[in-house]
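Hello Y.,

Per our agreement to keep a running log of every chain we model this quarter, I'm adding this entry. I've kept the format consistent with earlier entries: sequence first, then predicted structure.
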Amino acid sequence: MRIGVIDSDAIFQHPFFYGKKIEIKRMNPGYCIKNKNFPFSHAEYVCACILLENPTSEILLYNIIGGNAGNEGELLYRSLEALIEKNVDIINISLGVEIPFSKELYDLCKKSPVPIVAAHANNNQTAYPASYDNVIGIRREFDGNVILKRSGNQNLLLNNKTYVSFKQLDQEHLMQGNSWYTAKLTGIISCFRENKNLGIEDIVDLIMSSSLNQISSVKQNNSENAILVTNRSDNQRQKEFIKQCFSKVHIIDINNLEAQKIVGYYDKLFIDIDKYSDFMSAKKDLLNFVYDIRDAYKHCYIRYPFLGYYDRYRFLTEKGILIEQLYF
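Predicted structure for the entry above:
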């Protein structure tokens, strides 16, 4: 699965990106970090979203936001044209490029055989190409109990309560923004297209009709008991978290899943693994464990959303078990 991305510059030095298939075409070089609390470029955040959902995908990044400002509209057109010619499978544009309506860009999007997923502006200004009726436009807009719904021709709306975790980059801060939602949905859609060979409309129907589209039901309730799977059982902060959240806990180390015998019935199976590498190393054993003890718990939650949407969709449809994640 080849995913075209039009965005800022990037260097991809975090270990999360090691071994990932990323090619950069620098149209406008210039690596920019805006805030020490968010120590990655815009494109790095975008690609982290896509690759969390589809780790085996190949990303072709065209950098049009960089050291020189003023010709982003032209670079957007040229990059989009190049990606279409390269016959990538899907194109992600998580940019709020402020350009006027362009008939040439509109026509290019209209004739594109490649699906284009684009972010609307966070400030509610009209954004192109997200506002074109031949592009899948993404924005956060509504309140309710579901994560995603349709609006108009090609627009997909995200719940106002939706936050994106970048724990895969070891970042503690949650973030909101149409750029990140767009990238997450690009990654999710690419998985469905790769594994089920479905059209965009059918994929969106599957996503919206699934119980995975419900806002997570988890609530802090220290009267409940839980099976807690962790990679840091001796950590003091973990112990304080357990004390605050649960009345009774059966603690299991992630490296000792096979030796566990669960006695009794628990309100929650709570998976609290805070390192992406630890989660991925144990992913197969962990999912087997979730299934093997399915009669010992009522609900299953993952605190840090390291398990991709498509993996959870398959687990739900094939095993009948809903794994909820606290963040998008």
